[in-house]
């Protein structure tokens, strides 16, 4: 399989393997899974009506993602098989290029994925 490209917006919660936001440095141990999923759904609802463009997705990833990639609009660049957590990689594979995924749960937290070429 060839490399995959993606941006993502991650919301960490109390069950995340490292419950600390890379954007703020604050603990997310007080955030429940339900709260994280609900907040992430609100971002999906903001992106979709605006055409789910990569530019719009990147704007919201900069504003909210708990991953260090927030600085680059959630851009993870290209990665090969096995380089990301399986749940996340499966979520990327299941999303068409130029489209946004549904909510993906991994050991890191809840993600929205925007598949890039």
TrEMBL record:
Entry keyword set: Isomerase, Rotamase
EC number: 5.2.1.8
Gene3D superfamilies listed in its UniProt record: 3.10.50.40
Molecular function via GO: peptidyl-prolyl cis-trans isomerase activity
Coiled-coil segments on the chain, per record: none
Stored SUPFAM superfamilies: FKBP-like
Residue ranges occupied by any PpiC domain in the UniProt entry: 1-117
Species this protein is from: Emiliania huxleyi (strain CCMP1516)
Secretion signal span: none
GO cellular component, one term: cytosol
Protein name according to UniProt: Peptidyl-prolyl cis-trans isomerase
Class of enzymatic activity (EC top level): isomerase
């Amino acid at each position: 399989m060839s490399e995959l490209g993606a941006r993502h917006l991650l919301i960490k919660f109390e069950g995340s393997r490292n419950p600390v936001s890379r954007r703020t440095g604050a603990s997310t141990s007080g955030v429940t899974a339900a709260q994280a999923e609900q907040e992430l759904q609100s971002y999906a609802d903001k992106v979709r009506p605006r055409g789910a463009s990569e530019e719009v997705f990147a704007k919201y990833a900069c504003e909210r993602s708990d991953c260090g990639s927030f600085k680059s609009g959630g851009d993870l660049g290209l990665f090969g098989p096995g380089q990301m957590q399986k749940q996340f990689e499966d979520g990327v594979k299941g999303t068409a290029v130029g489209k946004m995924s549904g909510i993906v749960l991994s050991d890191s937290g809840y993600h929205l994925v925007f598949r890039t070429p």
